[in-house]
Each structure stands twice: as C-alpha cells, then as structure tokens.
Specification:
heterodimer, A: mainly alpha, two-stranded antiparallel ribbon, 14 helices, B: Rossmann fold, 2 domains, six-stranded mixed β-sheet, 16 helices, 25% strand
Chain lengths: 360, 499
C-alpha cells in the first residue's frame, strides 16, 4: 500500500456539519442514484434522459398525473412520518409494510362488522381500529427489543410477511366476497366506510390526516416533554437514563405510535382506494417510506416534500410502462437512491482529505 | 530493545501524550502504571501502530522505525494482548493463531501448525492444547492462547493490557510466572496496570504516567507503594483553598450495609456504610476501579442495590428510579460528561433542559424561559458558548463542566455527587469548579466528591473515605491525616476511623 495515490486519501472527522452539507448529501445521493439507474437504462438501448422526462411528465405533466401523484404520496407520507419517530430513537422499524397491512385489516374488520353505520360513526371507528392494529403489530417486536435487546430490524422485517399472508388468508378465506367469482377480495365496503374525496379526483381525506400528523409531529418533537425525551433517547440512551427518562417505556410507546401511523395509512388505502380488503393493497409503500424518512433526515416538513416526489416516481413508473419499460425500474431507482443516501451519510460526519494521516 | 522518545499525541481538545519517553530492555518486565486517562493506552496504541505520533521517535534495537500500521508493528516483533481478547470462539487455538497470518498457503497442514504451537507452549510453559476450541477454555487459558498467538508471529516485545483484570489470584500468579520465563528467554515484556501491589511484586522497572506525561521510571526494587502512589496521584502545587469552617446540619445521605454488583456481575461494592450530612463535603479516595463509579451510580439510582439500604433525608430510597432520585434532590456530575451528563449533538439550551424538562408542568416546553435560564447560567459561571445553537460537543472541557455543574446546582439540590469533576480541566476552570462546590457546601448541600487527586481531596473534603476493592477502608479527617496514611489505605490497609 505504502505511498500510492489512493492511500493518501483518508476520512477526517468534521467538527461541525453545515446546513449546506446536510442538504447537499441527500440531493447529490438522488442525482447519483439517477445516473446509476440511467446506466442500466442505457444498457437496454434507451435514452435515460428521455425515460426520466417521460416519468416526470407522467407524474407532474397533467392534472390527472398530479392528482395520482398525491394519491400515491398519502400512504407514503403517513408511513414515513411514523417511521421517522422510531428512527429518531434509533429504533430501526423496517415493518411499516406489515403494520400498514394490519391497519388495513383492522379497518376492514370495522367496516364489515358495522356496515350500516353512517360515515361520521364508522370512519372514526375504522381509524381507531386501523391505528390500534398497526400499533400492536409495531409493539409486538418492541417488547423483546426493550427488555432483551432483541434486534428489531429483523423481527419487524419478518413480521411483514406474517401480516401480508394474514390478509391474503382473510381474502381467500373467511372474508372472501361470495359474489367475487373467486377473486381474492373482501365484499365491497358500504358507503359509510369510504373516505370523502376532493371533487371528482381520487385525492381523499387521507391527505388531511397526513398533513395534520406532520404538523402534530413537528409540535410534539420540538415543543413537548415527550418529544424532547425521544430526541435525547435517540442521541444518547445513557444520557436519557441519567436524566431520569424511562427508556424502556419510550421504546414501547414509540414503536406503538410508529406502527399505528402505518396502520392509519392502511386504513386510508382500503377505505378510499380499494374500498375493500384485497391481495396486494400496497406496492411496497412501507419500504419506500423508509427511504423517504431517511432522505428527509426525519424532518416532518421535508417528509411531506419527499413523499410527493416519491409518489411522482411511482406514477411516473406506471406511465413509462406504455413505452415498454417495467415499472420496477422505479424500484431499482429507489434502491439506488437509498444505497447512495446511506453511503453518503459518512460525508455528514466526515470529510475526505488528502495528505498525511494525523499530520502536523 | 524499544525506545520511545519524546512522544507527543494530540486528539481534538486533548493532549493525550506530552513528550513521553519510555524504554524497555530485553529480559525485563516493565510496568506502565497510571490512572485511567493518564495516557497509557495511547502510548501503547502508538507502539502497536494503531496511532501515529504527532511528534517523537520510536527506535527498535537502536534503529528508528516508522510504524504505519499494526502490520508494521507485528513485522517489527511487537505484539499485544488486549484486555478484551481477540479470539474467534468456535475456532481452535491453532486456527485462531493462523487467522490473518500472512504466508499461509491456501491449502495448509493444520497438523504441522498444531505441532509448532504445542512446541511453543512447551517452551514457555504455557500449557495449551492447540486443537481445543476457544469456547471450551477458561479465561486464563484464553489469555495464554493470545500469548501463544503473538509469540507464533515472532513477537520479541509483548504488551499486556491489564492482564490480571479478568484473572483469579492463582491464575494471575501463574501468568507472571510465565512472563518471567519469557523475559528470561530474552523477550521484553510491557504490562499496563494500575494495580500497585501486583506491579511491585512481579516487575523489574516501573514507568508512571500522569495526565499524559511521564512522571518517571523507577527500579521496582528501589521503590515503595508510598512513592508510587505519590507519583500516580501527584502531590505538588497545593492550591490554597480558603474554606469556611464546616457547619454540619442533618443527615442527608445514609448508606447502610450496601452491596451492589459491577458490570461483570461481581460484587463491586461490599457492605458500604457511609453517612453524609448537609453542609459537608465527603471525599472518596481510591485507585480507579475500586468501586467509585458503582458508588456514584448507586447513589444516583442508576445501579441496582443488591443488599442494604439507601436513604435520603430519612426517606428509604433503596429501590428508587433515577427520576425519583432527581426528585429527591440528588444531583450527579458523572465521569462521562459528554455522552451521559451532556448530549453531544444537542445545544446548550437543550442540554440545560435535560433534567428540568421533567419539571415542566404542562408537558409543553417553554423555550423562551429555557433560553433565559440558560443565558443566566452561562453568564453567572462565565461559560464561553460562542453560539448557543451549536451542539455542545464543540465546547472545551472546562466550559462543558461548568455548564454541567451549573445545571446540576440550578435546582438547589440536597446532595451533589461528583465524579472526577476536575479531571482534564485547566487551572482557571478548576478554580471555578472548586469554589462552586464549596459554595454549595456552605449553602447546606451535602457533597460527595469522588476523585483520584489526593491534593484536591485534602483541600476540599471535610471527611475523607477511602475505597479499596469495593470496601470502605476507613473514614478520616483530612486535617489530621497524611497523604502517606491515605496512600496505605488506598493500597488496602484498614485504618481505625478517627474522623
């Protein structure tokens, strides 16, 4: 190794991190992700720039595109907000997808059990049922995490599969619509179980939930005792314990709320979009939300913005299908972005310098 | 064999080694003695190629060397046995030995390696079976496996970091027997330790480090526990401290036959009996690692009490949580200022709020009020905070400590527990901390001062308790006792209480 050109580069810890760096790292990560995915698109013989323009046009180029983008961004937003609380406490909840499915299950249970109720009664009950079901699904892995330090990354991830298969079981089994010609779907919801929409578009009340939650989260994190405890616990568990904060209780509470919000996202999806429980209600919202929360550096306002961008990527992905592309190009793009965001994280705390190590 | 000349190593904000010189001859067991944070580990990390010195020179057998990496150090015959062994548990001794070794063929003959390992262990009397898996071995045997590993790599200079910390007394004795044998065969042995008695019994020479500097090297035969203690804790520059006469009020803290476990599950505190009254400072002297940290944590409610009783102002708080202890008026300035006492990435205001947040009545934070209170504390104690919005990790050690202590006394506590409150501070900050502690005492608070600087303890304490092996060796009046007596108690001699 000796004195070769490469070995002269090394990382040095930054004493401070400027706001410019904090913004540029995620922005550059997205750009590099776009270039990286573009290379693969180019390999298939298409012009990546053209494909990206097509995606952008599909997502934001028409009133329909914009409304669809917002529709897709609603579950992303609510899930990402939930995840951001857990991530703040350094709890790596990878289970938003499963918690969303459990929320959809809880809401569907309410919708099918009280079909005759009017909307003003049934919708709140569905919301509570969805939040509770998702929250309990988040709480379950939190218990071994809090008391026995069982790694929550793995447990929350594995519980996704259980939740998804549980919903699949319900729609092919006990909750299958007898009139469905054997499609794996539950009976359609009654009128009282459907969230109101904006005019004739598919944009629904869930948007209001998302924005209200973002606002609440901002207030809670910055202006309440509990929000302060979450921030301290995330920064330094030792300091949290020292300051008399109940670390174990906060783990349980945070995971419950984190899961509950994903559950609320599940409720909005079955209530407003599918209007019944069915197989595959989420194209991976819970996973995309991880990337969103991370890109937004867990800041509620930034999460709103990034969610809309990611909603646009999904819609754009569907629109390029017509020109012979698989919409999974978007999954690849998302993966590439996450990869570079996580990789770029080192530049937040370190900078690359050339020269003698520990030099004088 | 090895010479380290005028080694200086700086870390951001800390001078870890300041022109330290240190040399070891072949055939000698040389101890590196000093308190935690004295710079022993940094010095040895430089010798093993982990860090590079900012200034100074290393010579091995007279030739200057530039150790760029641990691999370089190994190539120069330097090997280290770390306190936490670096062994792969499911692998056998021989497999661990060849792990990461250069010059092993893709297809190797484990049997021939087994043989050479067995021969090495016979030669040095290490008694180790090459084919036994690590997880089956006792701690002492694992340590011997580590030693064989570095010998196999051709080490001529062996460094052992706190080698007896994990051993039983019998194992420790055997270890030193082995080390002596290796020294007789021409190896140079360096032992990092802070155990006086052990170092005196088994080494040839002792170098004492304190505060990043070398205090001196002495021949073991020509020194005594007393001299070493003095070298370790330091004596000169008695700062004149003006102290009002003690004005004791009621009993604040009562510890009754209290025992608690350490992190490794052993009893770190044994049957402690200690009372502290309002208006007095009780100092705790002792070599680090004799139960001080556990004592502080027990009082702060951060460590569970196994047996015995703890009372504050007459209320039984044996089972109290950290929150309940804070509510009972117990403040704590921990050893780990940045990370436990303060949160590095939060700003001064947020750190000031750390404990006060529990008192916010509505659950909402009034940032305006917090900003105002923080500004008052910053002004009152002359804390240099360039920008109150910046994370506190950018503050200097003295300013951090003033912020931390300022916060801890802002609630007018009944009891203040401070651990090494002046460690690493400059003279000015030290003076401030001293006078703040005395002010609190005069206000009527009880102060528990844990320190390793005897002169500091003598200057500030009204009574002085000495910890050794988790037991109180005695409580003395610092005005009626000498450094020497306290030094003996720190080494494990019991004294009749006359305080």
């Amino acid at each position: 190794m000796g004195n070769s050109w490469f070995s002269r580069w090394h990382f040095e810890k930054r004493e401070t991190t400027s706001n410019l760096v904090l913004v540029m790292v995620p922005v550059l990560s997205v750009v590099i992700g776009l270039i990286f995915t573009g290379l693969f698109i180019a390999l298939t013989g298409k012009d990546p720039l053209e494909v990206y323009l097509l995606m952008f046009d599909g997502a934001f180029g028409s009133a329909y595109g914009i409304s669809e983008t917002i529709v897709k961004s609603i579950p992303l937003l609510i899930c990402a907000l939930g995840l951001s609380i857990a991530f703040r406490m350094q709890l790596w909840n990878i289970g938003a997808e499963g918690q969303l499915y459990m929320g959809a299950f809880g809401a569907t249970w309410a919708a099918l059990t009280f079909p005759d109720w009017p909307a003003y009664q049934l919708l709140p009950v569905m919301m509570v049922a969805g939040f509770l079901a998702g929250g309990l699904w988040g709480l379950l892995p939190a218990i071994p995490r809090a008391y026995f330090k069982v790694n929550e990354t793995i447990t929350t991830l594995l519980m996704n599969y259980i939740a998804i298969l549980w919903v699949d079981y319900l729609v092919v089994g006990p909750w299958k619509d007898p009139k469905s010609f054997n499609f794996p779907i539950s009976p359609q919801f009654t009128e009282g179980a459907i969230l109101p929409t904006l005019g004739t578009s598919r944009i629904h009340m869930g948007l209001v939930f998302g924005v209200v939650v973002a606002l609440l989260l901002y207030i809670v994190l910055n202006y309440t005792r509990w929000g302060f405890e979450i921030r301290v616990s995330g920064e330094s568990p030792a300091a949290a314990r020292y300051a008399g904060m109940n670390y174990v209780k906060n783990i349980l509470l945070v995971m419950f709320i984190s899961g509950g919000l994903a559950g609320l996202a599940g409720m909005t999806e079955v209530s407003a979009i599918t209007q019944r429980l069915q197989h595959g209600i989420s194209p991976g919202y819970g996973y995309s939300a991880i990337i969103i929360a991370w890109l937004a550096r867990l800041h509620p306002a930034a999460i709103v913005l990034v969610s809309v961008i990611f909603g646009g990527m999904l819609v754009g992905g569907y629109s390029i299908q017509t020109s012979g592309f698989s919409s999974t190009t978007v999954s690849m793009l998302q993966g590439a972005i996450l990869f570079f965001v996580v990789g770029g994280e080192i530049f937040v705390n370190y900078r690359l310098v050339r020269g003698e190590k520990g030099g004088k | 064999m090895v010479e380290m000349i005028n080694i200086t190593k700086r870390f951001p904000g800390i001078l870890a080694n300041d022109r330290v010189s240190f040399s070891v001859k072949a055939g000698e067991i040389h101890a590196l003695l000093g308190e935690n944070g004295a710079g022993k580990s940094t010095l040895m990390s430089i010798l093993t190629g982990l860090y590079r010195p900012d200034e100074g020179e290393i010579r091995i057998q007279g030739t200057p060397v530039d150790l760029q990496s641990p691999r370089d150090a190994v190539a120069h015959g330097i090997g280290m046995v770390h306190q936490h062994f670096k062994l792969v548990k499911p692998f056998t001794v021989a497999e661990n030995i060849i792990l990461g070794l250069k010059g092993i063929k893709e297809v190797y003959n484990l049997k021939s390696i087994d043989e050479s390992v067995a021969q090495l262990s016979r030669e040095y009397g290490l008694h180790i079976q090459p084919d036994s898996p690590i997880w089956q071995l006792s701690v002492g045997e694992q340590q011997r496996a580590e030693i064989v590993k570095i010998l196999f790599r051709g080490a001529e200079i062996l460094i052992l970091d706190e080698p007896t910390a994990v051993l039983t007394p019998q194992e420790a004795k055997d270890l030193y027997k082995t080390l002596r044998k290796m020294a007789d065969l021409g190896k140079a042995i360096i032992v990092i330790s802070h155990k006086l008695s052990e170092v005196l019994a088994h080494t040839d020479a002792i170098t004492v480090l304190r505060g990043g500097r070398s205090v001196g090297t002495v021949r073991t035969k020509e020194t005594s526990e007393m001299e070493l203690t003095r070298m370790m804790v330091g004596r000169p520059v008695m700062l004149e401290t003006v102290k009002n006469p003690v004005n004791r009020s009621s009993k604040v803290l009562e510890l009754h036959n209290l025992s608690a476990l350490g992190n490794r599950g052993q009893f770190a505190l044994k049957e402690i009996n200690l009372d502290i009254y309002g208006g007095e400072i009780v100092g705790i002297a002792g070599v680090a690692g004799n139960g001080q940290r556990e004592l502080a944590e027990v009082v702060a409610g951060l460590r569970a009490i196994e047996r015995g009783q703890k009372k504050v102002d007459g209320n039984d708080l044996t089972l109290a949580s950290p929150k309940q202890m804070i509510q009972a008026g117990v403040s704590y300035v921990p050893e780990d200022r940045l990370g436990t006492g303060l949160v590095p990435n939060l700003n001064a205001m947020e750190n000031y709020l750390l404990k006060g947040v529990q008192r916010m009545p509505s659950g909402f934070i009034n940032w305006k009020q917090v900003a105002q209170e923080t500004a008052e504390v910053i002004k009152k104690y002359d804390i240099k905070v360039p920008n109150p919005k910046n994370p506190v990790k950018m503050l200097s050690g003295g300013n951090l400590q003033k912020l931390l202590l300022g916060r801890e006394i802002s609630g007018k506590p009944r009891l203040i527990v401070t651990m090494y409150p002046m460690r690493g501070l400059d003279v000015g900050a030290m003076e401030t901390i001293r006078s703040l502690l005395l002010q609190e005492r005069d206000r009527g608070a009880a102060v528990l001062l844990i320190s390793e600087e005897l002169e500091e303890l003598f200057a500030l304490s009204d009574r002085l308790a000495v910890l050794h092996g988790g037991e109180v060796m005695g409580v003395v009046d610092p005005h009626k006792t000498t450094f020497e007596d306290v030094g003996l108690m720190m080494a494990g001699k019991r004294m009749a209480a006359h305080g």
